[in-house]
Amino acid sequence: MATLVLDNGAYTAKIGYSQESVSVIPNCQFRSKTSRLKTFTANQLDEIKDPSGLFYILPFQKGYLVNWDVQRKVWDHLFGKEMFKVDFSDTSVIITEPYFNFSSIQESMNEILFEEYQFQSALRTNAGSLSAHHYFHSRPSELCCLLVDSGFSFTHVVPYCRSKKMKEGIRRLNVGGKLLTNHLKEIISYRQLHVMDETHVINQVKEDVCYVSQQFYKDMEVSQLKGGENTVVKDYVLPDFSSIKKGFCKPPDEMLFSGKYKTGEQILRLANERFAVPEMLLHPSDIGIQEMGVHEAIVDSIQSMPEEMHAHFYQNVVLTGGNTLFPGFRERLEAELRSLAPAHLPVSVLQPANPICYAWEGGKLLAHSPDYDEVVVTREDYEENGHFISLLSKMMPAKKKRLESITNKYLKGTQCMLERQWSTHHGQRQKMTQQYSQQVSSALQQWETEAQRAEKQEKRLNSLFRQQQKILQEARVVQNQKLKTVRALYEQSVKNIEDMEKSNDSFLQGAEQELRKEMATLQKKILMDTQQQEMAKIRKWLQSLF
């Protein structure tokens, strides 16, 4: 029995047999303004000669399948002779549905698959579960992963432990590719050219020129520069669907920073729009959506899990969905997570080679798995038991067997992990023991060297001390002798001073006596001279009288 894998996305359907390659086809219908009466379905978009003003008729609204008429027409086209030529009597189908899908939608899908198309068996599952199966199949030693599925309608963050979906950790952001395209249309219509009806063209512009900035504010400053200094600005040539079938970016050497192009081409000049639009994935509040960014939702989801799992989730963040293809998204998300995650936990963000088809590839692997027949619901079970009983009667033993296989895989994985951790820890212990012994031996050698050096220094100090002590003793003897000599000299000088004082006293007494004698003699002489002078004056006076 052939198995058809259908990842039924809101924008594109990824479809193909499990033995073949995948085809990515628009999951909608179109109407062109040039041929309003004709409706084009899925890949018939290529038949439209002038896709300008293309009108989309989508089966999904806000991520859930609500327009069954459109979806039937798309499936009729996909399953029909023009595409996969499905033989329903000999085909099983794996089809994806949104997380927390409504039971009414599930019942309608069962009715269409089993009653209208009459598939022999079917498996409804989430795209994230198929991606997780793909991831664990390629990395059997891993225990956990955290899927970031950013698609057309919204972005989901879903933790998985093996193949089990941890519902309490699921986080949804109402930001998807549709919102980004609509926001870009509004910006361009406000600033340059009215393009609100050109969803198809602007979606292509978004995919061609937008990127996720690593330094948002720095790029914003660069985008405001003039001339060649502005490395962010790009000129995008819009298609006219006659000579230019698909838009493209002007090469940098052909861009004009002043004046107009003379080629007659219709140009969109995009600067900060290139990175401001994808920035909504990380900061939805920039346009008034009061929700967490992708990085914050990841951390919040991991924090809701048991603490023992945190390290496994941070090391296994897997990106799927078309929005993860923006250049720089993986690097920016990893940097943002690194800033929010605990410092001791490593962070790793993984991006598959083809994130759009990653879930489909997981479904392909599941179709070849020996457990596949145990998890599908057959047409006979559905006809006999209806929507719920058939699922329960078939899924309970399947889940039991699957649980046993998961438990065995988990135990094997745990044992491998424990053995790997034990060998790692054993090697680390041996390495630490060797390093410790080397450090101890080097420390002992250093201690012995320092002890010998200290002993030598001690001996040297002892000899110096003895020498200094001997010198001090000799100096003390010399000092004592000098003190004795000084004392004798002092006593002799005191005695001499006393003798000098005595001799000085006697000398002074003799001199005083002699001075007194001389004074008396002088006084007598002066008195005699005075008397003689007075006598002479008296004689002269007497003589003058006579």
UniProtKB/TrEMBL annotation:
InterPro entries assigned: Actin, ATPase_NBD, XLR/SYCP3/FAM9_dom
Listed SMART domains: ACTIN
Subcellular location: Cytoplasm, Cytoskeleton; Nucleus
XLR/SYCP3/FAM9 domain mapped to chain residues: 394-525
Any one GO CC term of the record: cytoskeleton
Keyword Lyase: no
Coiled-coil ranges (or none): 437-474
Alphabetic keyword roster: Coiled coil, Cytoplasm, Cytoskeleton, Nucleus
Protein origin, superkingdom: Eukaryota
Family classification: Belongs to the actin family. ARP6 subfamily.
Name used for this protein in its record: Actin-related protein 6
Origin species: Gasterosteus aculeatus aculeatus (three-spined stickleback)
